[in-house]
Amino acid sequence: MPRADDRLLSAGPGCRVPASEVTWRFGPTGGPGGQHANRAHTRVEAELDLRSVRGIADDIRERLVSRLGPRLRVVVDRHRSQARNRERALDEMELRIREALVVQRSRRPTRPRRGAVERRLEAKRQKGARKAERRRDWD
């Protein structure tokens, strides 16, 4: 079975980070669970220093640091197994890096077409006429 440290965090061209660059910390999970939850250190904290990690091109590194900050930190305690939590943490890191690298298209402002404007104004006129018919003549 491959180890988590053998894996590459791949988020596209110019961004292939070896998992051995990730700093790990472990601790007990919170919440109920009895003796197993109190003694087993299955909670995983994974941290990646984006400024000094190898495997990232410089222009991509700048984008990641501007969007995610200098350190990417993920905490996982979903599973009862530390190994599964480690895999989940690496998956989450990879997902966050990919989302940070997506370039948002700029929005082109649009205007309503003439037909839509005319329909809206006609509906307003009809509603006003309907309300005018309901009014009493106080003379």
- At the first level of CATH, the class is Alpha Beta
**Overall pLDDT score:** 88
N→C terminal distance: 93 Å
- Given as residue ranges, the uncertain stretches (5+ residues, pLDDT < 50) are none
> What is the H-and-E element order?
EEEHEHEHH
Shape: elongated
For the biggest β-sheet, the strand order reads 3-4-5
The CATH architecture term is 2-Layer Sandwich
Structurally, the number of domains stands at 1
Summary, kept brief:
This protein is α+β, with helices and mostly antiparallel strands and 139 residues long. It has helices spanning 34-39, 58-68, 82-101, 114-134, and strands at 8-10, 16-18, 23-27, 43-49, 71-76. The chain has 4 helices and 5 strands.
Architecture overview:
The N and C termini lie far apart (93 Å). This protein has helices spanning 34-39, 58-68, 82-101, 114-134, and strands spanning 8-10, 16-18, 23-27, 43-49, 71-76. It has 139 residues and is α+β, with helices and mostly antiparallel strands. The mean pLDDT is 88. Strands 3-4-5 form a three-stranded antiparallel β-sheet, with helices on one face. It has four helices and five strands, in the order βββαβαβαα. It has a single domain, classed as 2-Layer Sandwich (Double Stranded RNA Binding Domain), CATH 3.30.160.20. The radius of gyration is 28 Å and the shape is elongated. The longest helix is centred in the C-terminal third of the chain and has 21 residues, at 114-134.
